[in-house]
Amino acid sequence: MAREIPYIAAINEAIHQEMARDESVLYFGQNLATTENDEFLKAFGSDRVRVTPISETAEIGMAVGAAIAGMRPVVELYMAEFMLVAMDQVVNEAPRFRYMSGGRVKVPLVLKAGYGFTAGWAGQHTGSIYGMFMGIPGLKVALPATAADAKGLMATAIRDENPVCYFHHYLLTLEPGEVPEGEYLVPFGQASVRRSGGDVTIVATGWMVGKALAAAESLAAEGIEAEVIDPRTLVPLDIDTILSSVEKTGHVVLVDQATRHASASALIAAEIADHGFSALKAPIKQVTALDASVPYSEPMEAYVLPDEAKILCAVHQVLGTAPVAA
């Protein structure tokens, strides 16, 4: 049975349920278990829920070691940019051991990190940097856009035998949604068709899924039926579902909050061009952030970031229905 809870509560529920199910699941973080009232500490004790030093290199390094030793650590990093301090562990250590050992060493590790906190945070901690982790063999990338997927993808990430970067959008934190009770898993590499349509394919990631669905509603009022696809995981990427939609519509708009030249949409565009070029009736259009740091000024922030109006404009361009400038 499903009930409505906030996105962040769905994430916490998944971690709590997986810790109750499997004693090898640990939870590390710089702000965890700081008081005896911490809900995870009360439920699972200080051996499994630990406050760490204010050092991402230390906490991720400890988690990699614990994973190799047979545990399943979840590291609460709060902000994705904090991972940059420990890129050797994230990129060069955790994803490599399984391959280098011929599969004998497993590294079941979840790096949980928020991203995309715009709303006046300016240059730091506002980035959408998931794209830089997409090309690392052995490293998986999850990007939930709904409360249900926030729960289901976290549970799947904890059970995976590989390191997973689990990115959650700050502005979705309190967004409510229908979430199943009890055990709930969302498989990696299986995109969700959030809305069906035959005129244009819109592929959107994370927070942009809601923007794309809002744009699709506006397009429907004009008689344009948009199909909205949420990849849910960027690694593995369900390119087959995307290509199937492109075969149907022939028109593609990709929506991504990351900067254009560091976006997941750039890779998705390349895959479509490589495998689905013959189905295209118009060039692929990307709606991304500009290649600029997020400004503090609210009007400038809006100028830099993608939004519903920019999605609508892109759809009209690929369909050839954009108004002609005077």
Give a nutshell description of this structure.
This protein is α/β, with parallel strands linked by helices. 35% of the residues lie in helices and 22% in strands. The chain has helices spanning 7-21, 39-44, 56-68, 87-93, 97-100, 147-159, 208-221, 239-249, 264-275, 298-304, 308-319, and strands spanning 2-6, 25-29, 49-51, 72-79, 110-115, 140-142, 164-169, 176-180, 192-195, 200-204, 226-230, 233-235, 252-259, 285-289.
Keywords:
Rossmann fold, seven-stranded mixed sheet, 326 residues, five-stranded mixed sheet, alpha/beta, single chain, 14 strands, globular, 11 helices, 22% strand
Question: What do these coordinates show?
Answer:
The chain is built from 11 helices and 14 strands. Helix content is 35%, strand content 22%. It is globular and about 60 Å long. The mean pLDDT is 94. The chain is an alpha/beta fold. The termini are far apart. It folds into 2 domains: 179 residues, Rossmann fold; 128 residues, Rossmann fold (3-Layer(aba) Sandwich).
CATH architecture of the largest domain: 3-Layer(aba) Sandwich
Give the beta-strand count: 14
CATH level-4 homologous superfamily of the largest domain: Thiamin diphosphate (ThDP)-binding fold, Pyr/PP domains
Strand content: 15-25%
Biggest sheet: strands side by side, in what order?
A: 3-2-4-5-7-6-12
Overall CATH class of the largest domain: Alpha Beta
Distance between the termini: 55 Å
| CATH fold-level name of the largest domain | Rossmann fold
- Largest sheet, strands/sense/barrel: 7 strands, mixed
Overall shape: globular
Number of domains: 2
